[in-house]
Design goal:
The chain contains 2 helices and 8 strands, in the order βαββββαβββ. Strand 2 and strand 3 form a beta hairpin.
Length: 130
């Protein structure tokens, strides 16, 4: 533990995890619908989803965006979201209806499912978080 004077220590809060993508509004719609998160901020190049006082998800426009090629290491995923679900099949159907696609590689489909969001980021639906 630091013995530094905390009266001058700045307050730092976790705001969001941000994802690069070609269209922030489209990806924000996908995750907003999937997770029931409202838009907190929106511009042409950035959209932030979340609730006041809680960390959110951000989406940042990249004009030269290349989606991850997981599990091929050519364009690594670097990060992904794990979503806890009660029913894998029902959650998978919901996410596919919102615009996700199944990843071709499914390491443990009995425990979790890997899907790709509309910008190609892998994310998992998992029962082990419930």
């Amino acid at each position: 533990m630091s013995t530094a004077d905390t009266s001058s220590t700045p307050v730092i809060r976790f705001l969001s995890v941000d994802f690069d993508c070609p269209d922030p509004a489209e990806l924000a719609r996908f995750y907003g619908d999937a997770l029931g998160l409202p838009v907190q901020f929106s511009s042409d190049d950035f959209v932030l989803l979340g609730r006041a006082g809680a960390p959110g998800l951000g989406f940042v426009r990249q004009t030269d965006y290349r989606p991850p090629s997981w599990p091929d290491p050519a364009q690594q995923k670097q990060a992904h979201i794990e979503l806890s679900v009660d029913d894998l099949d029902a959650a998978q159907d919901r996410m596919l209806a919102l615009g996700a696609v199944m990843a071709p590689f499914q390491p443990r489909p009995d425990v979790w499912r890997v899907l790709l969001d509309p910008a190609g980021h892998p994310f998992c639906l998992a029962t082990h978080g419930v």
